[in-house]
Amino acid sequence: MINLKIPNQNVNIDWYLEYIKKEYDRYLWGNSNLWSLINTWTNKNFQKSFEEILVCSHEELLRIKNAWDSNKKSVPDYIVDIKETYLKFAKSRGGIGDSSKKDRITAFEFVGRIEELTCPYCNKTQIENRQNIRARSSQLDHFFDKDKYPFFALSFFNLVPACSSCNLIKHMKSLDASPHCSIDLCDLSNFSFSGVAGDLSSLEILLTVQGSMTVNEKVLDLKGNYSKNKSNLNNLLLKIQENPEDYFKSLDRIFSKREALEIVHDTVLDKNRFYTKPLSKFKYDILKIFHGNDISD
Ligand SMILES: [Zn+2]
After folding, report:
1. How far is the CA of 168 from the centre of ligand 1 (A)?
2. CB neighbours (10 Å) of residue 171?
3. What span, in angstroms and rounded, lies between the C-alpha atoms of 170 and 232?
4. What percent of the chain has pLDDT over 90?
5. What is the tens place of the pLDDT at every residue in 154-182?
6. Number of CB atoms found within 10 A of residue 128's CB
7. How far is the CA of 121 from the centre of ligand 1 (A)?
8. Res. 98: pLDDT tops 50
């Protein structure tokens, strides 16, 4: 699992906020307007407006969620109204995650704008949306489940572009760390291997996790998922053998070592760009075993 690094984040947040505001101005539901419902509730409990909830950081969403969880007995009746009204918005206006209305914002446009190219949960699957909303391989996961926390259903930092397998496996389950969090998730997991290059049956991909990645790994079954990538590991190890340290030294007038490794192994070794290439975190950890920690410099 890797962190989501959204290029032009502020521009995209502004665009998103404007879009949602415009839609809400256009679409009211009689007495049960979602905007005013959430404003009433959040101002009373968290001193937050709906507008703030739409764009506040993951850490702030987490704070509100924890306060909400610890105070469930006093769930106001209108939380049910918030949920139903959100569902009406999503269904009738093609809200976030609903691809049935092609003239409205959908996961298709959202993912296209934030330029995520791989699923942050597995970093194995390329997510690619093409031509129209039907030709998309990225879904949008609601990190905090939209049935349990309907007031986060449209929050920018609650939306995680993910491959359909990860979205399906996670479904309504909770994870400990969001790809939107400010903790460096790459430091909390580490791939290694056992076995010998060239002998596929001997190879095993090992994954150790710590801290908040422990729950994430279990829910998303990352070990099970990566156990299927033995041939990727084998190819990587064979290429490492074919390109010993001397090879990179001979290139050092043209490329830095990192650049040369990236070209040879068709990957990125900069954590901030792991989202651009499938398996980049996996390749990074394995290459680190042979080339040391300086490979990302
Ligand atoms: Zn995935």
Report:
1. 9
2. 10
3. 25
4. 49
5. 899 999 999 989 999 998 899 999 999 99
6. 13
7. 5
8. no
Report the C-alpha gap between 202 and 251 in whole angstroms: 33
- Our CA dihedral for 290, 294, 296, 297, rounded to 10 degrees, sits at -150
The bridge status of strand 189-194 relative to strand 159-163 is unpaired
**CA 6 to CA 4: how far, in whole Å?**
6
Phi and psi based region of residue 123 (left: phi greater than 0; alpha: psi -120 to 50; beta: remaining): left
Report the amino acid identity of residue 42: T
CA–CA separation, 48 and 41 (whole Å): 9
* Residue 36: count of CB within 10 angstroms of its CB: 13
Local structure of residue 135 (DSSP, 8 states): S
What are φ and ψ of residue 69, in 5° steps? -60, -35
Distance between CA atoms of 170 and 216, rounded to whole angstroms?
9
Domain boundaries, the chain: 9-170, 185-296
Cα(248) to ligand 1 centroid in Å equals: 33
DSSP letters, 201-242, are GG-EEEEEE-TTHHHHHHHHTHHHHHGGGHHHHHHHHHHHHH
Q: How far is the CA of 271 from the centre of ligand 1 (A)?
A: 18
Can you tell me the distance from the alpha carbon of 288 to that of 257, in angstroms, rounded to the nearest whole number? 12
Q: Which of 32-41, 91-100, 103-112, 201-210 has the lowest mean pLDDT?
A: 91-100
The reported pTM is 0.89
> For 192-225, what is each residue's pLDDT tens digit?
999 999 999 999 999 999 999 999 999 999 999 9
CA of 288 to the centre of ligand 1 (A): 23
Q: At 175, is the secondary structure helix, strand, or coil?
A: coil
